[in-house]
Structures are given as C-alpha cells and as structure tokens.
C-alpha cells in the first residue's frame, strides 16, 4: 500500500480543559527513524487514565500536547533501515511505557508512556521504536489486542511481577473494569480460585460465566473483606488482591489478604485519600505494592499465555470509530461500559 502524507488524530492540548482540550485534527504521517517501525493502527481502547489526563488528575509524568491513548494495535507498513525485529505485514500491539523493556520500573521508563509523554494511538499511523511493540496474540483481532496494552499488562504484572501466582492460590478482584476482568481470566487460566466483588446481580452472572468461584455484592455486604477471608481454606485469606477502588475498598482489601499476601494497588476509583494507617501492613504482615503497567518482557509472556489458553478480553458491546472517540470518553466517564471499550481505526 502507498503511505499517505496526512492522517487524522486526537491531540490532548492541555490538562486543564477537560474533554474540550481533546482536539480532532489533521496531522502529517510520521516517517520512521532508523530503529523505528511505522504502524497503520487499526484498533485502540480507553483506560481510566485517558479520562483523567485531560482533567489534570493523572499522577505520572506528562509532556503535553500529546496524541491521546496508550492502547493500540495494527500492521507494520514500513521499517527503518536498521530494524531487525519486524517486517512489513507484521501485526503488533504497543508497549505502554516504551522504555520499560525488562526488570523493574525506573524514573526514566516512567517518562515514556504513550498518550502521556510520547504520542499515543488515537491516530491512523504512528512510529514506534522497534522495541516499543510486540506481536499480537494469533487468537485476537486488532481491537482485542489493543485492549491488552494497559489493563491486561497491569493485571499480569500484579499477579506475576512480585510473587508469581500459583495454582490453587486465592485472588480477590474488584468490580468489572478492564484490569479486574483480566485478573479474573488470568487467575482462572493459572488454576487459581477467584473471589470477585460487584454491585449488581447482572454483573455477578457475567463474573460467574468468566469463572469466578465466588461473587460478593459489596453493596449488600459492606464487610466483604471478612466474607472473602472466610471463604478461603482455614479462613487464612487470599494471596493476591487486585485493588482498584482506593479509599473506598482498601480497608476491605486489608481484611481479605493472607499473611505474606500482596495487595496490588492499581487505581483509585473510589478516592485517593486512604482511611487506613500504613502500619496495618505490619499487623497484617502483607505487602502493598503500587503497579505501573509492566515491561516488554512481561507483555510478551502475557501474550503467549493468552494464545495458549485462548483468552479473549471482555469488550463492551458499543464500538466507536476514531472520529467518534470523544463519545467513547464520555461513555466511559458515565460508567456505561463493561470491560474494555473498542475503538476501530480505518
């Protein structure tokens, strides 16, 4: 195919204008450098992070203006002169933090986030370092693959980054957002037991269909952490808690976790001012760990496991096109979604 000169993209112009700062515009198609690939993006997906960057609520580094969004997948259509890893026609997905290749996160890597510091994926064409993309799982389409970039990799890192999840262990997930649903799917693929929390009977049914062993309605059971603990052998608690609620859920996460268990702190949907004393980690003898997505090495391991177990991300039934992406932001902000929001790109 011939490569066009111009393309459409969504640019975040500031962190103080809300969605008014998200501008749909024409832009040149970038030329790949020696070590870069040019990707014709075909699918994208939104994360809570994308909603809060234009609202000035994001706690990690930003370099605005920037093309929005981290989650993307597409086809390599040109490669730089020194690229060895990829060829035209390869199907790839993006790495969230382009500089996080393996091992621990560091300050330099934290400043390489797509859609925050580096131009992201809400556009038709993008250049990325050859080490900034990975092969998409053969069982997934472009939009499904895009949804793995942030939420999928974050849950993978939560379950495998510090104390790898083992068969027969217990995991608590919270709600039906992308990270929580991926954690449920990955945990079941590993042969673990999952206790999921939710607020409605309808969502409880969906969680059971995905394999949740127990579902607790947190509106009906405010002390769900203790309830979760009692479901585990000997009432000892769970090895992993996927903590996305922040202030609203952290007390219950502490109640649910086993001695030497890990609470992975991923979000603050219920507020960022915790009601708990950090010294609770001593009386509970647990680890509380912040998780900031994951490395390329982890991304590749996760994609291999997704292929092996034929895992398909839970995608919302409403599909948005690139030009309607702002409507996708509004839809997610209004909490109308279940799982990941698909955005198709032509």
UniProtKB/TrEMBL annotation:
Domain annotation Enoyl reductase (ER): ranges: 18-343
InterPro entries for this protein: ADH-like_C, ADH-like_N, ER, GroES-like_sf, NAD(P)-bd_dom_sf, Zinc_ADH-like
Name by which UniProt lists this protein: Zinc-binding dehydrogenase
Organism: Podospora comata
